[in-house]
Amino acid sequence: MTEREPKDTHTDLDERLRRFRDKQDVAAGRIDNPESRTGGIGFAMRIGTELVAALVIGVGVGLLLDGWLGTKPWFMLVFFVLGSAAGIFNVYRVVQNQGGAIGYRSGQRLTSEDANIDRDGE
Description:
Elements: H1 4-28, H2 39-69, H3 74-96
């Protein structure tokens, strides 16, 4: 029984170290995260949606105000510019947080506590 314990302990330790190193490599960007391989299309769709939604809301508010106040193109033009600025700001905000998770700042590194390495191996 004592002969099997060291082998199991070493195998368990090797497996835990491999998982930890893989998570560090993914966090550092040295290897691709398997979950984010199809994320490029989703990311592009999100950017497009953010921009278009801000423009549509801006133009819609401008047209409603123009119809209500009788100032035909002016509010639509003003809110088109405001919607464009809001859309560009939203896209900038999304791109700056690319790969980030809730609670992580840009450039924050993964630690051993984040990798959930414990005695259970989970």
